[in-house]
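## retry 2 of 3
previous attempt timed out at serialization; input unchanged, resubmitting
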Amino acid sequence: MTRTILSQFSPSRRTVLKGMGAGATLAVTGGLATRAFAADPIKVAAVYTVPVEQQWVSRIHKAANAAKERGDIEYVFTENTANTDYERVMREYCEAGHKLILGEVFGVEDAARAVAKDYPDVAFLMGSSFKPDAAAAPNFSTFDNFIQDASYLSGLIAGAMTKSKNIGMVGGYPIPEVNRLMNAFMAGVKEVAPDTKFQVAFIGSWFDPPKAKETAFAQIDAGADLLYAERFGVSDAAKERKVLAVGNVIDTQGDYPETVVASALWHFEPTLDHAIEQVKAGTFKAEDYGVYSFMKSGGCSLAPLGAFEGKVPADVVSKVAEKEKAIKDGSFTVEINDAEPKSS
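## retry succeeded, writing output
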């Protein structure tokens, strides 16, 4: 695993890196400039504000490493980047000759788009709550984890597994990419157990497991027998108090085999693979990549029941299968509700 901190580069070092491959012939095909040899791996860099172990970023990191192993890209990254350093690190990666920049710019939106304007021959694919603006930055595309389909399915299972009909939900911040998943989960629960009550809390951090754990403990004390673990730390509380949990973005049942009953998984591969294809073809442009996270695009799925196989009621398992089929064939659409969820 490579952790690259570009702030350690001297100006001369950046100049050398920028010049690497300068002798390669460039072709322009109506989009960004690309090397004439399409088989060459493109240089990709990612800027993350949290550790790569954090669930959301880990999915981007996983997809990038898979593309690297295929030989499609060269990949370096910087993690734990403060918002105040984000723009500088982005610029240094651009100066070093990277042709695709990945990251999450929820707290540095304006600065990130300003960098894109200054480097029109570099492609930017950034996690954002906002849409791309082709007029202002034609090389700046946005993505988001639109995994409401899988979240809804996990809610169906949760509705069947809660006995107290009291579910605790712990999120990072009440922003659209969190809200839509919580709302889809709640919709699934209510379809199976309409009288369920929800305790909704946000910890004001993307990575604070101790705070998430303490918040979850309080919800258990208030009657919750199942927790929606949008943040790390929630499943630890569930395990200690012997209640169930539903995971988000990644599958943690291996770490909590008697606790995590289901998980909505995000697969970043379709999103990244589309961007790589566009960069290599010289056709990358400002585009909303949200659709590549939908279940019908392969961007999300419900994790296997694993240790809970046979423990979830058979009629609900059948219902989940039917709804999954309907989502994939387009006959059923999970509502995208970005409003802040409230306790009930």
